[in-house]
Amino acid sequence: MKYLFVLCFAISASAVAEVPNDAVQFKLKRISDGDTVVTTEDTRIRLWGIDTPERDQQHGTDATEALTEMLHNQQLYLETKDVDRYGRTVGVIYTADGDEINLELVCDGHAWWYERYAPDSQVLNDCRVEAQQAPKGLWEDEDPMPPWEWRRR
């Protein structure tokens, strides 16, 4: 019976990790920073619900490198959420396996949950708490500065 439970859990967990039906496949041209990419069609995509350190901010390079590694040689899909005031598409990126890149960046401690733009995302909040308590990535610092505060300096 114990093995049956484990098997059922594995099946239900894998069923959750799927690319949403409304997500569209795209090809990556380049990564601008830890939360912005550009497609081969020159569409700028800003990752929804998260904010990573700026390039010249502590952990900025780490966030960009983490995103680069996550997207390298992957078949990618975009679920569009919005268009921001700069004309960038705002969305969630998935791999063909259903991995949610935005969420992984937060869970791994490379990004903040950007509560201002995703106030109802309990899963992003849960990942932030988990990374902070571990601590992982930027949370290894005693008092990391959020990028939105860094930009105001």
Mean pLDDT: 91
Approximate strand percentage? 15-25%
Helical coverage, percent range = 25-40%
Using only C-alpha atoms, the radius of gyration works out to: 16 Å
Terminal CA distance: 59 Å
Order of helices and strands: HEEEEEHEEHEHH
Structure annotation, total helices? 5
**Low-confidence blocks of residues:** 1-15
What is the spatial order of strands in the main beta sheet? 1-6-7-4-3-2
So what's the overall shape?
Answer: globular
Number of strand segments:
8
Structural class: alpha+beta
The biggest sheet amounts to: 6 strands, mixed
Please give a structural write-up.
- This protein is an alpha+beta fold and 153 residues long.
- 34% of the residues lie in helices and 24% in strands.
- The chain has 5 helices and 8 strands.
- It has a 6-stranded mixed sheet, covered by helices on one side. Strands 5-8 form a two-stranded antiparallel sheet.
- A hairpin with a 2-residue loop joins strand 2 and strand 3.
- Helix 3 (101-107) packs parallel to helix 4 (122-133).
- The protein is globular, with a radius of gyration of 16 Å.
- The N and C termini lie far apart (59 Å).
- The model is unreliable at 1-15 (pLDDT under 50).
